[in-house]
Amino acid sequence: MGRKYNYLTKSKVASGLQCHKKLWFDVHEPLKREKAIFYGGNRFGNQVIKHYSKKELNILDLTGDFIKPVEKTTQAINSNKIDIIFEAAFEFSNTQVRTDVLIKQKDGWTLLEAKSSTKLKPEHIDDISIQSYVVRQSLNKFGQKLKKVKLIHINTKFILKKIGDYEGLINDGNDLTERLNENEIPNNIEELLPLTNKDSICPKISVGSHCNKPYSCDYFERCDSTSNQKQITPFTILPYIGKSKDLTDYMAAKKTSDLQKVPTNFFRDRKDYAPGYHQIIQTAHKKNQPWINPNLKNVLKDFEFPMYFMDFETIGQVVPIIKGTTPYYPLPFQWSVHKWPTKDKPVDSGKSFLQFDDQDIERKFIETLIKAVGDKGTIFAHNAKGTEIKILEKLKEKDNCKDLASQINNIIKRVEDSAIIAKHNFYSPLMNGDWGIKSIVKAIPGCTINYEEEGNISGGTDAQLAWFINTDPNETKDRKEKQKKLLLEYCSKDTLAIYYLIKYLMEL
Ligand code: SF4
């Protein structure tokens, strides 16, 4: 399909309300990226359709129909024979919206908008106001009324008890009719529409706190013009303050984006980081030299061989397919472990576990892991507190894993968080303000691990996408196999990277 100009959609208006430049990119240079979040949303959308299709109503389902959907919707509404429309399409003021569920009532229509989130969020009000404005104006043209607007979201308390039974997954109790704000929408459309013109010029807008609110912007790397000026390291790399409003406003007022121009009174300490870590970053970039904690040797002396390097991947299924789980329960589906037996021996070639929809996945996950890490030696995991420890603590409580609690406790006791070790002891300007393992490997001399190869899985969200692909009955076997292979490579790359980090620190 060719690019459409002079034309807005709900998501484009939402982009424009966040940042004009984001809208411009959406129209003129969009990023085509498959995302796990879309798979999750679609699965929830399918359940929404099933839920409202139960009653014996006359239904028009326009899901996935892009051939004259506005005409088909208009016809259905004017026919007076259709009771419910899925993915109805409306157009008003060059703005098209698709509505999830539209139900005919005695005195008008009810619009229901589905979000695969767990509750009503402030940004939903703006988002749904765009829908309701366009639908209301269109219905008015046909002499009909929009009477009610509701949000559908996920019931977090839902637990899958029987495969395929999703009774109770949907919460449609949020009536937004009185909370919407349609007054500004005509002005917003008028203001944003010129940006969709074929010849419009990309607005000059710098990155700042708006890039993450209300949504994290996909164009950040492309747009961060300061990072393209090689002679300047941008202040935005400073963890926790680089994108804060106070600092971005200050730097904008000073008309600079140079890290070296950030006054120290903005710097903050933070648990898990070395004291004065913002200053450490600024100085390392100024001198173009790494920083190493003089006390490093003392920190490392308590770690024991054999050493293990461990990483988990988890998934929030959205629509659970594993019995006993809730929509956003972090289901562990993959682990990777590398073992370094002694200082004078090489690291092994690694072990792994990978399952997608096995109903006994957690039991198999932990049983195999217990074998892989043995019962002694330090286990390193990067950001272990955020994932690995949490998962192990949860598994201990699960009915089908409780009998393994003492072995799980033994693993937990041996885990050391390599991210915290690095944050307290090492920083290189090559890490650009980030202690993620993918940034750290760039700073380790001789480390050949590269996450940036084309087509690779390069992060946790890609791994989640691979889980969705592998549990989708409509995906091809070839695509599933390819994703499986990439997942195994990716997770093993992470554990090997942790090994390189620890080895490097030990040799310093
Ligand atoms: S990264 Fe920020 S400035 Fe750039 S388009 Fe996105 S929101 Fe706008």
Task: Write structural notes for this entry.
This protein has two domains: about 10-190, Lambda Exonuclease, Chain A (Alpha-Beta Complex), CATH 3.90.320; about 300-425 and about 435-505, Ribonuclease H-like superfamily/Ribonuclease H (Nucleotidyltransferase, domain 5, 2-Layer Sandwich). Helix 3 packs across helix 17 and helix 13 runs antiparallel to helix 14 (about 405-415). The longest helix is centred in the last third of the chain and has 31 residues, at about 475-505. With about 500 residues, it is an alpha/beta fold. It has helices at about 10-20, 20-30, 35-55, 70-80, 120-140, 185-190, 220-225, 225-230, 245-255, 275-285, 295-300, 360-375, 390-395, 405-415, 420-425, 435-440, 460-470, 475-505, and strands at about 10, 60, 85-90, 95-105, 110-115, 145-155, 170-175, 290, 305-315, 330-340, 350-355, 380, 415, 425. Strands 1, 2, 3, 4, 5, 6 and 7 form a seven-stranded mixed sheet that branches. The protein contains 18 helices and 14 strands. About 40% of the residues lie in helices and about 15% in strands. Bound molecules: iron/sulfur cluster. Iron/sulfur cluster binds near residues 18, 22, 210 and 220. Iron/sulfur cluster (SF4) binds near residues 18, 19, 22, 207 and 220.
Beta-strand percentage range: 15-25%
The CATH superfamily of the largest domain is identified as Ribonuclease H-like superfamily/Ribonuclease H
Low-pLDDT parts are: none
Radius of gyration: 26 Å
- Molecular shape: globular
CATH class of the largest domain: Alpha Beta
Largest sheet data: 7 strands, mixed
Average pLDDT level: 93
Count of DSSP helices? Answer: 18
State the total count of DSSP E strands: 14
Number of domains: 2
CATH topology of the largest domain: Nucleotidyltransferase, domain 5
